[in-house]
Amino acid sequence: MSAWLALLWIVEAVEQVTRGSLLWLGISPRQLEDLPQIYTAPLVHLDWQHLMGNSAPFFILGLVILLSGVWRWLVSTFASLTSSGLAVWLLSPPNTVTVGISGLIFGWLTYLLTRGIFSRNWRQIALAVVVFAVYGGILWGVLPGSPGVSWLGHLGGAVGGVAAAWFLHSTSERRRRLSSQGR
């Protein structure tokens, strides 16, 4: 996670030195040639304040998931980035460019909040309570309201996080139940 966070800071330094030359990596809605940018836009931020606001939740939430396994981290990251990027690409107003990693942060947050429900694991539910106490307030970001904030990216990421939790944890719960029934 430290390396990924360092990469975000290096990209922002390049962005600042080159005065916005990396904004082409952002998502332009409904431009087919810009569809791959759903995976590059999270690397770019508008300014240092934008990156600073995302850095702590990015590092902490990502680390918590990474500690539960690389596969879970990869699946939750891919699902969150994809759904966040697609929501922005499909639904954002024309002639806009969206950048930033907050869609992934929202995905990781909802993944952590819902995986205990799907797995029926009391330790994961307890962790969800702690995560909600610390970061639950940012969930308001899935609603429209703040100009310049991509609530569509937040909402899309949140949907991806729930989908990843369902995929990773309800299927493993089903497998456990099926194997115990077969004994």
Please outline the major beta sheet. none
Number of helices: 6
End-to-end gap: 41 Å
Number of domains: 1
The arrangement of helices and strands along the chain is: HHHHHH
Mean pLDDT: 91
**The CATH top-level class label:** Mainly Alpha
Beta-strand residue percentage? under 5%
Number of strands: 0
Labels describing this entry:
hydrolase, Rhomboid-like fold, 66% helix, 6 helices, 183 residues, Rhomboid family intramembrane serine protease, single chain, membrane, mainly alpha
Summarize the structure.
By secondary structure, this protein is mostly helical.
Q: How would you characterize this protein structure?
A:
The chain has 183 residues and is an all-alpha fold. It has a single domain (2-178), classed as Rhomboid-like fold, CATH 1.20.1540. The protein is built from 6 helices and no strands. The chain has helices at residues 2-17, 48-67, 70-91, 102-119, 122-135, 151-181. The radius of gyration is 17 Å and the shape is globular. The relative contact order is 0.15.
Please render the helix and strand layout as text.
Layout (H helix, E strand, L loop, with lengths): L1 H16 L30 H20 L2 H22 L10 H18 L2 H14 L15 H31 L2
